[in-house]
Amino acid sequence: MSVKAQRIIDGLGGAENITDLEACITRLRTEVRDPSAVNVQALKQAGAHGVLTSGPVVQVVVGAEAESLADDIKDML
């Protein structure tokens, strides 16, 4: 499994906090149970180029590897 995928899961507040995840070109679109559990700094340290949040929706900008990271994360959830 991907270390980067695990770090992103951790930054999103852990597997139990993620309710939905999909890849969208250069981003991971996620929905989380508790937005306050999301650690933007940890996501950036994991390699995210940016993080956009709006309530429970969190978009993690990761570049061209979004699809493969989404697959890795889904396998880990």
Q: Mind sketching the topology for me?
A:
Blueprint: H1 3-11, E1 18-24, E2 27-32, H2 40-45, E3 50-54, E4 57-61, H3 66-76
Antiparallel strand pairs: 1-2, 2-4, 3-4
Helix pairs in contact: 1-3
Account of the 3D structure:
- The chain is of the alpha+beta class and 77 residues long.
- The protein has one domain (3-76): Gyrase A, domain 2, CATH 3.30.1360.
- It is built from three helices and four strands.
- α1 (3-11) packs across α3.
- The protein is globular, with a radius of gyration of 10 Å.
- The mean pLDDT is 96.
Query: Span between N and C termini?
Result: 12 Å
Ranges where pLDDT stays below 50 over 5 or more residues in a row are: none
Number of individual domains? 1
CATH topology: Gyrase A, domain 2
The rough form would be described as globular
Counting copies of identical and different chains, the oligomeric state is single chain
**Major sheet size, sense and barrel closure:** 4 strands, antiparallel
Q: What's the CATH class, please?
A: Alpha Beta
Instruction: Bin the helical content.
Output: 25-40%
Number of strands: 4
Q: Any guess at the CATH architecture?
A: 2-Layer Sandwich
Strand ordering within the main sheet: 1-2-4-3
Q: How many helices does DSSP assign?
A: 3
What are the key terms here?
alpha+beta, 34% helix, four-stranded antiparallel beta sheet, 77 residues, globular, Gyrase A, domain 2
